[in-house]
Amino acid sequence: MPDYRPRKTLFNPELRRRGIYILPNLLTTVALFSGFFAIVQAMNGKFEVAAVAIFIAMVFDGLDGRVARLTRTQSAFGAEYDSLSDMVSFGAAPALVVYVWALKGMGKLGWIAAFIYCACAALRLARFNTNIEVIDKRYFQGLPSPAAAALVAGLVWVMIDNDWTGEEARWYACILTIFAGITMVSNLRYYSGKNINLRKSVPFMVVAAFALGFALVSSYPPGVLFALFLVYALSGYVLGANDWLKRRKRRMTPE
Q1: Nearest alpha carbon to residue 166 among 97, 90, 230
Q2: Contact 101, 156 (CB under 8 A)
Q3: In the CATH hierarchy, which fold is given to the domain comprising 17-252?
Q4: HSE of 72 in the Cβ direction (CA atoms, 13 Å)?
Q5: Domain ranges of the chain
Q6: What are 153-176's pLDDT values in tens digits?
Q7: Whole-prediction pTM value?
Q8: pLDDT tens digits for 62-81?
């Protein structure tokens, strides 16, 4: 008896639904390539290039989500692919770069510090994926992995730019690497910027502020970028202290 069930062809609507959107996933691929390139350059001893590659990965990682939302091309595949890309670019790559540059000569403490960062990045991404529907979209829970990676890569970049060797900066690198890792898995709040609507009109001063920001970064990229992400990392502790003071004040206020 002939089989009249629909065959799985390229023109089958069921198969078309399984396709992926090109633009946002292409941007994610560029971010993944940048993270992989950073690892390769670190293995070749080009640590400054590796640090810059991590910052480039961060730029494209920020673009893919924005583009997906603006073009309405979000998908479950894109979300999973983005997480895997983040693990390489903002988990493994910064840990390996800072380890080879500064922590390798510290023995066990060095690779343990690098592993703490890498493990915390994985935990941070897993928690983000499972809590994405229940958390306040205005804030991240814990330091975002791209910001943590920028903090570590920024330290490498600014130290090399000021003629510091990895051996001279190893204790600073060790402390900052552990700090970035622990902050990623903390419950501190960090402003996400996801409530910014790029399709709405803004006052002229906002555009002027962006222009001033670009000029400031271009004046000394390593130092300014490292300072910005260090301030962002510390902002979570400021918000946490402020929340703690408010709760303490409410408990002490009589009913």
Answers
A1: 97
A2: yes
A3: Four Helix Bundle (Hemerythrin (Met), subunit A) (1.20.120)
A4: 0
A5: 17-252
A6: 999 999 999 999 999 999 999 999
A7: 0.85
A8: 888 888 877 888 888 888 99
